[in-house]
Specification:
The structure holds 2 protein chains of 2 kinds.
Chain A lengths: L3 E4 L2 E5 L4 E7 L3 E9 L5 E7 L2 E5 L2 E6 L4 E6 L8 E9 L7 E2 L3 E6 L1
Parallel strand pairs in A: 2-11
Antiparallel strand pairs in A: 1-3, 3-8, 4-5, 4-9, 6-7, 7-8, 9-10, 9-11
Chain B lengths: L4 E3 L2 E4 L5 E6 L6 E7 L6 E7 L2 E5 L6 E5 L5 E5 L8 E8 L9 E2 L3 E5 L1
Parallel strand pairs in B: 2-11
Antiparallel strand pairs in B: 1-3, 3-8, 4-5, 4-9, 5-6, 7-8, 9-10, 9-11
């Protein structure tokens, strides 16, 4: 069964802390997406990766294909990073669908 | 700005009615996905179109239908609306027809059924 699990479900941290959000999946994938949903509802694609590591500003995404695991890191977190972070996975046999994780609600306190 | 345009942004309608949500994909993107997000729920995949043809179907109710037109914009039709259909409806577009390319999301249409 194609499954995506995210952890933690909720995360509250102080401004400046290093944040890690995890995503694990069950079987082989062709791509993994990290997305950010703002409190107002809008969704932004942060990364799409199938191997290795990507960095954009204070955000870093890594994926370990052998361990079927990806992490999203935020360095020097800021209150404006408060959002829901969602991992979505394209499984090789998913008929083009993205299977979504439940999301991690992140709150950064000033 | 993702380049994906959804209209209207907000819609309030009564039970039993029918509404049409519209999505214009990013220029050059051939694929449109529709998602439903109910209150405090995750994104539920409804349906995908690629270059005018239905590509994949998710948890879409029979009361709902969609199509993609020759200019690649897409419409999601919701009929016989029920209170439980109140949700945020997102569309996303990608260049390719699978999940291997970056997805760009519209701002969503917030549907309230009263």
């Amino acid at each position: 069964k194609n499954e995506v699990e995210q952890s933690p479900q909720n995360l509250t941290a102080q401004e400046g802390e290093f944040i890690t959000i995890n995503c694990s999946y069950s079987v082989g994938i062709s791509a993994l997406h990290w997305l950010q949903q703002h409190p107002g509802g809008g969704i932004v694609s942060l990364f799409m990766l199938s191997s290795g590591k990507k960095k954009h500003g204070r955000l870093i995404a890594t994926i370990n294909i052998q361990e079927k695991h990806s992490s999203l890191h935020i360095t020097a977190s800021h209150p404006r990073d408060s959002a829901v972070y969602i991992c979505a996975v394209c499984f090789m046999d998913s008929n083009y669908q993205l299977i979504w994780g439940a999301g991690t609600k992140l709150i950064i306190k000033p | 700005d993702s380049g994906v345009t959804q209209t209207p942004k907000h819609l309030i309608t009564a039970t039993g009615q029918r509404v049409t949500l519209r999505c214009s994909p990013r220029s050059g993107d051939l694929s449109v996905y529709w998602y439903q997000q109910s209150l405090d729920q995750g994104l539920q995949f409804l349906i995908q179109y690629y270059n005018g043809e239905e590509r994949a179907k998710g948890n879409i109710l029979e009361r709902f239908s969609a199509q993609q037109f020759p200019d690649l914009h897409s419409e999601l039709n919701l009929s016989s609306l029920e209170l439980g259909d109140s949700a945020l409806y997102f569309c996303a577009s990608t260049v390719g027809g699978n999940g291997n390319t970056e997805a760009f999301f519209g701002q969503g249409t917030r549907l309230t059924v009263v």
